[in-house]
Design a protein that fits this description.
The complex is a heterodimer of chains A (about 290) and B (about 325). Chain A is an all-alpha fold and about 290 residues long. Helices cover about 75% and strands about 5% of the residues of chain A. The termini of chain B are close together. The chains are: A mainly alpha (about 290), B mainly alpha (about 325).
């Protein structure tokens, strides 16, 4: 029983880390521009398919396909941002939501057209497969890898935001966009770069997710709900908040589905509504 | 807009002027009768469209007029559908009281959830409506002893309307029934949006902080319209149950919540008929393109949605009325 519990928490942690990588970008861009970008999940899906193509067509190894997913998603997302999303920053939330939902529809249909509706298989290198046995409990190697990667990303993000000049500019723009602009910061450029990094992380998350949760054209929609839960519960623009929310959601989701499968998914939504009812700005949100 | 100068006159006569039936509306309802004579094979589809249009109007009341963005309104549609189905399984198949029962049940849930809805705004609001929608779906899925779960509710037996008009295979009764209920729904919704209450809803939508300043209890207004809208959505769901004699989990799905908002945006929000036009275009197109893989169908819907938002932010009806305004 205790062993089960440890394994469930470990799996939940891994799933939570995945959710964190998928959603942290959206949290920061939402905090920065208040732009409700539901296409964030579509960029994650894009990263997943890019990794598949890089491995299958170009013959790249898995670890080399991850940067491809990151850079590809970052590049394509910033094109969309400059060409389309920018026009909607002053529009109301409804138009932003629907425009980006439209983009998700198009992305899902395009993925189905190009790759078919089935799950995409992925061949992992040998050293990421299998399990490690510690004290009679079996831990998946890939999940450990996932946790390490996500922790590394978290450290990089926190250090980057807290100790670099650009990080300080991002923080200033999140806290008060007008004042930041008044001080001569180019919020527009800051936002474009942040958007690219955030979507790139989503793309990386999409590539990392294939082994754990699979990849098909409905990925953008399916994981969008999880991503939005992480963002809204964690609070906009808060990396720590997203991290805590992702871990809580991951562990609760896996534990709920393992211990009480009948109402497992029900619990997640109850938690979401409950937390937002008490704290509409999220756990760590300031506004 | 020329209404500014009119508003300076007596507000009551201005409201009355707004609520007068226009020629377009009368023409619309005459056209709505045409399927009986010209497309009798499409009456089942026409009935589905009327039901969806009623649902779209219920969403327009909260989204278009009161500015509450909802991505979970299918929960009321589905609750109404299940309420209407379950009351027939309990042995009472009379349709009109079934409608009232379903509407009242959805209204009750709407009233209870409205306390949560008015507390939150922006992203949290979207997430709360989404979460409540998923919550209801998962609950219905888990309570399969009551709802039939993924298999849907079977054995729904609806009695003839007034003990006389049976639901036939061709959909004559279904379409007449749905169209009459839709008409009554539009009449009720017109009355609401053209009242002083309707005006204060628009005030809430336009400027939330100014409403309390002029002494208008906006939370109370929002709760009221949310409850009314839930009731209308419940009635629409009940209509679907009664005309098709089945209920599936799909009535509660996120897809339905999203589709209805898409229809509303395509047609134009905050003008009642926008939802109806959107429902007609969406459903007819889907029916005509049903040979197409649904995945590809959403490609065109997505593209259309993006184009409408960029080019015509007020939807098709809004775009048309702007064109008409330019000409005159």
């Amino acid at each position: 029983m205790v062993g089960n519990l440890v394994i469930v928490i470990f799996d939940g942690l891994a799933f939570g880390m995945l959710l964190f990588v998928l959603s942290v970008g959206l949290s920061v861009t939402l905090g920065l521009m208040n732009f409700v970008n539901l296409a964030h999940g579509a960029f994650a899906m894009l990263g997943g398919y890019l990794a598949i193509v890089a491995m299958r067509q170009l013959g790249l190894p898995f670890l080399a396909a991850l940067p491809v997913a990151f850079l590809g998603a970052a590049l394509i997302s910033v094109l969309f941002e400059r060409a389309l999303f920018r026009r909607l920053y002053r529009a109301d939330a409804l138009n932003q939501v629907l425009f980006t939902i439209g983009l998700v529809f198009v992305a899902a249909a395009s993925a189905a057209y190009l790759f078919g509706t089935g799950q995409q298989p992925i061949q992992l290198p040998g050293y990421l497969q299998g399990v490690v046995e510690i004290g009679g409990m079996r831990f998946g190697v890939y999940r450990m890898f996932l946790i390490v990667v996500a922790l590394a990303i978290t450290v990089l993000l926190v250090l980057g935001l807290d100790y670099t000049r650009f990080g300080a500019q991002v923080r200033a723009s999140v806290d008060n966009q007008r004042a930041a602009q008044g001080l001569g910061l180019n919020v527009d450029t800051i936002f474009a770069v942040t958007f690219a990094v955030g979507s790139g992380l989503a793309g990386l998350g999409g590539a990392l997710a294939i082994e754990m949760v699979g990849l098909d054209p409905s990925f953008g929609f399916h994981y969008l709900v999880y991503v939005l839960i992480v963002v809204s519960v964690g609070g906009l623009g808060s990396i720590a908040g997203s991290f805590v929310a992702a871990v809580v959601l991951g562990v609760c989701d896996v534990a709920g589905k393992y211990f009480v499968p009948e109402i497992g998914s029900f619990l997640i939504y109850l938690l979401l509504v409950g937390i937002l009812f008490v704290r509409p700005q999220g756990l760590f949100g300031k506004r | 807009m020329t209404t500014v100068s009119q508003a300076a006159t007596d507000p009551h006569s201005w409201l009355r002027g707004q609520s007068r039936w226009s020629y377009f509306e009368i023409a619309f309802w005459v056209i709505a009768l045409l399927p009986f004579y010209f497309f009798p094979t499409y009456l089942t589809l026409a009935s589905q469209i009327a039901i969806t249009a009623l649902f779209a109007i219920s969403v327009d009341l909260v989204l278009g007029y009161a500015g509450i963005i909802t991505l979970g309104h299918a929960m009321f549609f589905g609750l109404g559908a299940y309420a209407a189905g379950l009351i027939t399984k309990a042995g009472w198949g009379e349709p009109l009281t079934g409608l009232v029962f379903a509407g009242a049940f959805a209204a009750l849930i709407g009233f209870l959830t409205s306390f949560i809805i008015v507390r939150v705004r922006h992203l949290a609001l979207i997430m709360i409506t989404l979460g409540l929608g998923f919550l209801t779906l998962e609950l219905a899925n888990a309570m399969s002893w009551l709802t039939g779960g993924a298999d849907g509710l079977r054995g729904v037996d609806v009695w003839p309307i007034f003990g006389w008009f049976e639901f036939d295979l061709w959909g004559y009764t279904a379409y007449s029934y749905s169209l009459i209920v839709l008409f009554l729904g539009v009449v009720a919704a017109r009355r609401i949006v053209h009242s002083a209450f309707g005006l204060s809803l628009r005030g809430v939508r336009e400027n939330l902080t100014r409403m309390p300043a002029i002494g208008s209890p906006y939370r109370f207004h929002l709760q009221k319209i949310y409850t009314i809208s839930a009731a209308l959505a419940g009635v629409a769901g009940a209509l679907l149950t009664q005309t098709t004699e089945t209920v599936s989990l799909e009535t509660l799905s996120f897809q339905r919540s999203a589709d209805i908002v898409v229809m509303l945006i395509l047609g134009g929000t905050g003008r009642l008929y926008g939802g109806i036009i959107g429902a007609i275009i969406f459903m007819v197109a889907r029916d005509q393109l049903s040979g197409m893989n649904p995945q590809y169908w959403y490609f065109w819907i997505g593209l259309l949605l993006m184009a409408v938002i960029l080019v015509m932010p007020n939807g098709i009806l809004g775009g048309l009325s702007r064109l008409a305004g330019r000409r005159s």
